[in-house]
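Box 4.2: Ligand-aware structure prediction
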Amino acid sequence: AYNFNAGPSALPLPVLELAQQELIDFRATGMSVMELSHRSAAYEDVHNEAISNLRDLLSIPENYEVLFVQGGGSLQFSMIPMNFLQAGQKAGYIMTGAWAEKAFEESKLFGDVYEVASTKAGNYRSVPSIDELKYNATDAYVHLTSNNTIFGTQWKQFPNTGDVPLIADMSSDILSKPIDVSNFAMIYAGAQKNLGPSGVTVVIIRKDLLEKANKNIPTMLKYGIHAKNNSLYNTPPTFGIYLLGEVLKWAKGLGGIHALEKQNEAKAKLIYDAIDQSNGFYAGHAEPASRSLMNITFTLKDEAAEKRFLAEAKQAGFVGLNGHRSVGGCRASTYNAVPYETCKALSDFMVQFQKVNG
Ligand code: PLP
């Protein structure tokens, strides 16, 4: 299938093939990874190797912990204010789409939060300009969403918030391009787009933040407990972490983060070019300066054409091109594991469809 699903999304074929080979007898243990004790040396190797490969790929500095937790990106929306919002403090949220809204709504349950900036009035076609961001020096943190999966926008440059901890939801673009981890106090991402299967959430967190966290919260929701126990406080999602580790090895084999970025740019360009060269037959949702390399959102000149486009695309083997139910239109998610050839097939299909229907 030409898989453009927004998440869970395509996994690299070589990783799936390896997992299939190793499914029953993992590295001569006579057991599946799923059957290993999470306290066994064989599993601990898998676990630690995944952490160390993520550190390498993203150049994560020593003063950050890499954690694997559960509950998806969505549980992070609650864990962040629970851990870091203290009485008398505020936290600022930058509103760039549906996931930022969800994070903001959840944070209201825990304390005093406010909107730093919002692009909602323009139907989230862009991210705010960095100069517009107004927050307080005393804020517990500022939260942003680096890539807006539903609207198809992405930050190209991040604000430097100085002493105010900057927390980023990178669920839909982590590992797609180099980032300066030291600009952030915390980064989190559900694995199911660029890193592996759903069920694992990666948290990259600066150690000093852990020390400041609230203490009177449930044990499993404390970042500190997971950090102290190398994400082995309870039974982690071992099979998911194994697959995530194999995705990271695959990414390293491709040449690492710069190679991934280059490939992602080339893939997205194929589809944006089909939009831009269509004389308005296709219209991109995002403003060009905020366009995402991961989720390409567009509409067709009218609803009937759009319906036909989606139906014919489905027939031709394209999967997941319907826009999110909240915005409609079309969306092609071109995460790391989506091959260049798959994007080429879509851009050719778009050009051909326009020829016949334009
Ligand atoms: N944040 C972003 C940017 C997302 O795209 C998603 C899911 O698509 C989420 C958070 C929610 O993640 P989860 O389904 O893992 O809770």
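In the box above, the bound molecule is pyridoxal-5'-phosphate. The mean pLDDT is 97.
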